[in-house]
Specification:
The chain has 328 residues and is of the alpha/beta class. The chain has a domain of 203 residues: Rossmann fold, CATH 3.40.50.300. It is built from 11 helices and 12 strands. The protein has an 8-stranded mixed β-sheet with strand order 6-7-8-3-9-10-12-11, sandwiched between helices. Strands 2-1-4-5 form a 4-stranded antiparallel β-sheet, covered by helices on one side. Strand 7, helix 7 and strand 8 form a beta-alpha-beta unit. Bound molecules: iron/sulfur cluster and magnesium ion. The site of magnesium ion has 4 residues, from helix 1. Belongs to the ABC transporter superfamily. Glutathione importer (TC 3.A.1.5.11) family. The complex is composed of two ATP-binding proteins (GsiA), two transmembrane proteins (GsiC and GsiD) and a solute-binding protein (GsiB). It is found in: Cell inner membrane. It comes from Algicella marina. It holds the Pfam family ABC_tran.
């Protein structure tokens, strides 16, 4: 499948100051990530908070500045053939907090029609789009069109946010913890809705979540991030079967319903990730990795392909790295 998004060594660094007189430091929120999102697929993105998932998403929608690297959307390079404005039209984002994303003074029909109107669609057509979308997101227009956000449940509000995103006719929808605040039963309904909409509207998803069970349900491929870097990426089933990177293995070992047979023998993660202002040298995971050797603190691991489409950046998988426990 053709890539819709190609990220090529993207970085997003931003300056911070701890206090008025403290020296400026640089947060390496995203630090040289490369990946693609194929047309029509769902790429799941996982990692602890602060690993750069949300910043990566914000880069793709133009809400965070690209410090270096290239980004292509449908073959067109951002800043060259493709303007930020055009990029923003093609990408929409849905966030966790369904209430904060909606204007409390607009009815849900008005909320969904708002984006198209601002973009020059005439009011009658915008209204037709909104009513049609209400139907598609499972909210009967006759009952719901005139309601206000506070009159809806969390799940209904999140359906409206999805409707608002789709009203802009995006190619890519980024879902950042979009079902995380919902009850389990509602979450399942919204996930099924998302799967239907992806097919019906020919969408591509980037699905960010801390919940590996949810990610498994919806993703075709999975990308694992640690401290601003991609440590493992591959077909979701391959990753659920075999976590090649010790960090991925540790994340999965904490997963409640994981089949014990399939579980990699790695203790769950202890402590917090190090500060992205001053990340560890070499492999950034070496301060927490049970398999770390001296090479790990010295050299940054290369991304190695271990099976079709499955890449991992860990010295254990690189026969040339000198790591003692070379994977068979
Ligand atoms: Fe662990 Fe070394 Fe692999 Fe990093 S490169 S994950 S420290 S074994
Ligand atoms: Mg986040």
């Amino acid at each position: 499948r053709q890539p819709l998004v190609t990220a090529d060594n993207l970085t997003c660094h931003f300056p911070v100051r701890a206090g008025a007189f403290a020296p400026k430091k640089v947060v390496r929120a995203v630090d040289g990530v490369s990946f693609t999102v194929a047309k029509g697929e769902t790429l799941g993105v996982v990692g602890e908070s602060g690993c750069g998932k949300s910043t990566t998403a914000r880069l793709l929608i133009g809400l965070a500045p690209v410090t270096s690297g290239r980004m292509l959307f449908d073959g067109q390079q951002l800043g060259e053939e493709l303007s930020m404005r055009e990029l923003r039209r093609g990408v929409q984002m849905v966030f966790q907090d369904s209430y904060a994303s909606l204007n409390p003074r607009l009815t849900i029909e008005e909320s969904i029609a708002f984006g198209p109107k601002v973009n020059g669609v005439d009011p009658g057509e915008a209204r037709r789009i909104a009513l049609d979308l209400l139907e598609r997101i499972g909210l009967d227009p006759g009952r719901f069109a005139g309601r206000y956000p506070h009159e809806l449940s969390g799940g209904q509000r999140q359906r409206v946010n999805i409707g608002r995103a789709l009203a802009m006719r995006p190619r890519l929808v980024i879902l950042d913890e979009a079902v995380s605040a919902l009850d389990k039963s509602v979450e399942a309904q919204v996930l099924n809705l998302l799967a239907d909409l992806r097919r019906d509207f020919d969408l591509t998803y980037m699905f960010i979540s801390h919940d590996l069970n949810v990610v498994r349900f919806i993703s075709d491929r999975l990308m694992v991030m640690y401290l601003g870097e991609v440590v493992e990426i591959g077909p979701a089933e391959a990753l659920y079967e075999r976590q090649a990177h010790p960090y991925t293995a540790a994340l999965f070992s904490a997963m409640p319903s994981m089949d014990p047979e399939a579980r990699t023998e790695v203790p769950p993660l202890a402590g917090d990730p190090p500060n992205p202002i001053d990340p560890p040298t070499g492999c950034r995971f070496h301060t927490r990795c049970p398999f770390a050797e001296s090479v790990c603190a010295q050299a940054k691991p290369r991304a190695m392909t271990i099976s079709e489409g499955h890449q991992v950046a860990c010295h254990m998988h690189d026969p040339a790295s000198g790591h003692g426990k070379v994977a068979a």
